[in-house]
Design brief:
about 70 residues, 3-stranded parallel sheet, about 30% helix, flat
């Protein structure tokens, strides 16, 4: 398996395409989005989705601690 990565805004147009490319190259992709403008259905099926706001630093720290080191 490739790298473990977190894509913020991964339910939006650009982020979802980035997540899709990372999944295609074999990375362990975690998508973070609050769905304010993105759509859940745009997240690639093989990515793990986390609905949270990137401005919530404590939630981001907890996420990284739960999934392990990221690239």
């Amino acid at each position: 398996m490739g790298e473990r990565v977190v894509v913020t805004g991964g339910a939006g147009f650009i982020g979802s395409h980035l997540a899709e490319a990372l999944v295609a190259r074999g990375d362990d992709v975690h998508v973070v989005d609050n769905l304010a403008t993105g759509r859940r259905e745009q997240v690639p099926d093989d990515a793990t989705f986390h609905e949270l706001d990137v401005s919530d630093v404590d939630a981001l720290v907890a996420l990284v601690e739960s999934i392990g080191p990221v690239a």
